[in-house]
Amino acid sequence: MTVVSIKEVAQHAGVSPGTVSNVLNRPEKVAAATRDRVQASIRELGFVRHGSASSLRAGHSRTIGLSVIDIGNPFFTDVASGVEDVASERGYAVILSNSAGDPGKESRNLLTLAEHRVRGVLITPAAEDTSRLDRLRDRGIRVVMVDHPSDRSDRCSVAVNDVAGGALAVSHLLTGGCDRVAYVSGPLTIRQCLDRKLGAHRALIRAGRDPEMVEVVTPAMTARAGQQAAEELLAAGLPDAIFCANDLLALGMLRALLQAGVRVPDDVSLIGYDGIDLAFASPVSLSTIKQPMQQLGRTAAELLLDECDNPGSHDHQQIMFQPELTVRESTR
C-alpha cells in the first residue's frame, strides 16, 4: 500500500507543505478557501497523518481527555456522546477516563492524559478541591469543568442548577399530597448530592414544612445501592414519598419496593434525577428531574476546543443550565 506524503498533498492542492501542516495542526491560521482546497486533496488522495510524529512536532495532539466519576452511569454516557459528536466534527479524538470518584485515581488518569499530549481536558472532578487542575494549565493543557460549576473567572464550566432541581422534585411530591419525604443519595461529599438535598430543604421550608427529611446515604449511586436503601426504609417504616438523587438509585428502589408488594405511587411516590432512557422503560415509568445531558457534553466540548484553537480571543464562560420536571407514573 502506497503511503501519501504531505508533499504530495501540497502538490495536488497547489500549496506549500507548510500550508498543509498548518491545515492539519493550526487550521485557524489558514484562509478558509485554502483550507477547503487542502482538505479536499487530503480526502481525494487518502492522506493519513502520522499522529505520534505530529504530536511530537506540535507539542500536543488532536485529542482531548474526558474524565468522569462514574462511567457506569448512563448520565455520563450521554454526556460523553455529546462531547464525541463535537470533537469528531472538529477533527479531534476523545480519550475517556473514569475516576470512580477517587481523587487519587483521577490524578493518575490526568497524568496519563498529559503524557498523551492532549490539547485539553473536560472533567467532572472527584473532589471539591480543584487546585490540582492548575498543574494541567501549567503544562499548556486547557481545562473545562463538566457538571460542576467553577467559581473562577479564568476557567470555563458547564453545569446544571441542582439546587433548583432538588426543589423541583420535592415541590412536585408535596403538590401530590405527600407529607413525609425521604432523600436517598450517594455521599454528600459529592457536590450534586449536597446541592439536590439543599434544594429539597428549600422546597419544604417554602411549603411551611419541617425541612428535616428521612435520609439514606449510600456508598454508591447505583441500582444495587438503591435496592439496599429500599430495604433500610422498609425496615424502618416507609415515608409516603422518596426523592432519589439519581435515576439509577430510583430504579433500584422501585424494583425493591415492587418486590415487597408496595404500590407505587399509591403507597409511595418516587422520583429520580437525570432523565436517563431507562427511567421511561421501567415497570412503573419513573418521574424524574431531567438534565440536558448531551447538551452539557456538546457545550463543554465547544468551549474547550474554542479555547484550544483561539486562546487569544477566547472568553471564559460559566454556563448554568436549568433542569426540568418530567412527570410519569411513579408520582401522584
TrEMBL record:
- What keywords would UniProt list here? DNA-binding, Transcription, Transcription regulation
The family database entries (InterPro entries) matched by this protein are listed as: HTH_LacI, LacI/GalR-like_sensor, Lambda_DNA-bd_dom_sf, Peripla_BP_I
Q: Which Pfam families match?
A: LacI (PF00356), Peripla_BP_3 (PF13377)
The UniProt record lists the HTH lacI-type domain at: 4-58
A Gene Ontology MF term for this entry? DNA-binding transcription factor activity
Q: Does the keyword Cytoplasm apply?
A: no
Q: What is this protein called?
A: LacI family transcriptional regulator
Q: Which organism is it from?
A: Sphaerisporangium album
